[in-house]
């Protein structure tokens, strides 16, 4: 036979060729040759056997775009592993078919299900006949095909036997049936009729027998689309809480209204059936203006936080790294500055933090120059969330000298003392945003007031009947207790401050006692009926609300007016005082001499104990500097002295520590409040012992202060040391 190479797949059906002279055809490589063969001059001379040698050609597919050295990192084996070489095949379409062979078990089952018959032979082979395409059932005759009588006779008789060696033929035409002939043996064949399924007479279908299925119909309708509106509301936890409170109050009002109707119906005589319609009481809706102001307030806070984002990060996270290299020194980091445009020419006379909301504080604006009395004052409430504008503003008819938040469950009440001797109480609970129109309570300007400026106000304990009270001290030598009732603000005299000297003779034989001008007041942390009063003469008096004309103790504290008095939070027997004589003094109850005295070289505007440490306190002076002391680190000098404002232009007047955060706010005489963050060295806390009993932070602070006091206290009775010579003799 001729040699053909398998790799050659040329179509030679239409290529003409001519035989050689000897009548043979040389079709090596499947290509007929002509009479003359062109041979390349550099071709090799091969023999006939070498030319007829069959050479197998192998085609290898090499895809240059597929990488062959791909590795991935295996986290299980902790190393890079090689990825198998990807296949060169691309699947363009994958479709799973539903056809199966007629000789398979599935094919036989399908034919039986469709009612066709199988031709079984004795040899065990199955042949499927579809030449008639008839379902043979019991009691029915076979339907003849459409073509002639021959097919009919073949259908009525036995099926014809096919001759071995012949292949089945398929003829496909329009309207003609497809005949399939399988090779069978000469043995007899038999017809396998499908078994008739016995139906259960008790099975019935309610849907087919009892009801009529309505045909499905499509009806197209066209309607106007529902109206759309864009709604944007802020949903927070407190808004949800207020909504529940309003709904609960609405339900309670409805219940009370129903009870009243039932009582009225029971008391009145029955006059026949009556039909009454009651209109439901709708809860009071918030005015649109208030909601707009609240939304603007939220937007303003967001803008301020984005504008001063760096300062906010410093307040929250920054710590001075230089404190690691200096053990007894610290720094104050300036943060925000708070001011109000209408109060730029006023003095900051008072600062106080809200006891519940640690990011809110109140500022009182007035004047310390009493040669030119001011006819206006202001109280502003600032928040750390909005540093550009106060949250609430209250304009007053006189300069503000002091303010104080209520510390016992009602932090929305603010007591204000004015320079004309009046006091007022404001409430921010139901006040509109950014404005406090009128005070909730106000003293009478004729008789029910002080005769001079009110220098200090402090909230006291509530009365047994639930009425709230606050105390005020003034330069008219009187200390008043103000009782806030439902309808009015009444006062009672607590004590008249008099100098401990002999009375002077007056006209008509009357003696006149010299009075003292009160400037500061501080209440005992645990005993609410005990308080200290500082005067312009420099004396400090310990008084009680139970005695109207008796001092419990007296200290000759300063040579100039006392500006502030503050109790220690960890030890109520320790308090400090500051005055215009440049000195800060630490006192202990029942001791006439101070434990510590510090001279700062300038009149002191304000001083206060730190809430985080029992031995730390701070003070501000009129030369624009802030001083921070820690007696456990240095008992003689301050550990931080920092200038905050220019010395010649302005002076510092007051300060206040934040009760939770390591920061302090300072006010000056130009209406600006500066916030400062304490470095880590200024707020060190004692470390608990590694072994032994576990102490609370409060106990550690008390122990630290007690250890310090034991070094400076003098014994009440001095005992002379024994004489060694007399003892030995």
UniProtKB/TrEMBL annotation:
Keyword field contains Repeat: yes
Keyword tags: Cell projection, Cytoplasm, Cytoskeleton, Dynein, Microtubule, Motor protein, Repeat, WD repeat
Acidic residues composition-biased segments: 128-177
Cellular component per GO, a single term: outer dynein arm
SMART domains, sorted: WD40
Localisation per UniProt entry: Cytoplasm, Cytoskeleton, Cilium axoneme
Gene Ontology process terms (BP): cilium movement; outer dynein arm assembly
Region annotation Disordered: where it falls in the sequence: 1-29, 117-191
Family, similarity comment: Belongs to the dynein intermediate chain family.
PANTHER family: DYNEIN AXONEMAL INTERMEDIATE CHAIN 1, DYNEIN INTERMEDIATE CHAIN
Protein name: Dynein intermediate chain 1, axonemal
Organism encoding this protein: Ladona fulva
